Amino acid sequence: MTALPGLGTPQLASPDLLRSTFRRHAAGVAVITARGATGPVGFTATSLTSVSAEPPMISFGVGTGSSSWPAIAASDHIGVHVLGEHQGDLAATFARSGADRFGAPTGWCEGPEGVPVLDDVLAWLVCRIVARVPAGDHRIVLAEVVLGDPAGRGRPLLYHQGRFTALRD
């Protein structure tokens, strides 16, 4: 392929091209939780999106090979937690395979519909899953907001260039 003026040399589509591109895209950080057959499950997500205001609906992606997928596939309700800049360690815990995500020092309680609700987050929602849409090796989960609390204090945690970071003034 030939270089484009001011843009460099295009690359053919590949997982590496997608990963490299999205490392340059700053994203908010959320933790998605659900009640699993053997206890609570959860994972860090940077794919959280507001879909609709009426009815209030969100979406996120989850890998079908992830340890959380079986619970998300079987659950009627999930929790969505917007993390603050002080919660990089929590985000890393929920992103790490094999971690005891709900053990100390993670603070949480059982919330509405049995959904695990994390302590000290900027905002949380309990949502009813309305669809799981196949998308390659992931599913896009669409969920309608049932209730929540947006009143946490602080600034959001971001994910950029492969690490958790904060906003700069």
What does this protein structure show overall?
The protein is mainly beta and 169 residues long. The protein has a single domain, classed as Roll (Pnp Oxidase, Chain A), CATH 2.30.110. The chain has a 7-stranded antiparallel β-sheet with strand order 3-2-6-9-10-5-4. A hairpin with a 2-residue loop joins strand 11 and strand 12. The longest helix has 9 residues. It is globular. The termini are far apart. This is Flavin reductase. Keywords: Oxidoreductase. It comes from Streptomyces malaysiense. GO terms for molecular function: FMN binding; riboflavin reductase (NADPH) activity.
Helix count, DSSP H or I runs of 4 or more residues: 3
The beta-strand count equals: 12
Strand order of the largest sheet: 3-2-6-9-10-5-4
Instruction: Please tell me the CATH architecture by its name.
Output: Roll
CATH topology-level fold name:
Pnp Oxidase, Chain A
Total discrete domains: 1
Shape: globular
Tell me the name of the CATH class. Answer: Mainly Beta
**What's the main sheet like?**
7 strands, antiparallel
| Low-pLDDT residue spans | none
Question: For the residues shown, what is the average pLDDT?
Answer: 94
Q: State which percent range the strand residues make up.
A: 35-45%
Order of helices and strands: HEEEEEHEHEEEEEE
Determine the fraction of residues in helical runs and give it as a percent range.
Answer: 10-25%
Within CATH, the superfamily carries the name Electron Transport, Fmn-binding Protein, Chain A
Structural class: mainly beta
- Cα-based radius of gyration, to the nearest Å: 17 Å
End-to-end separation: 40 Å
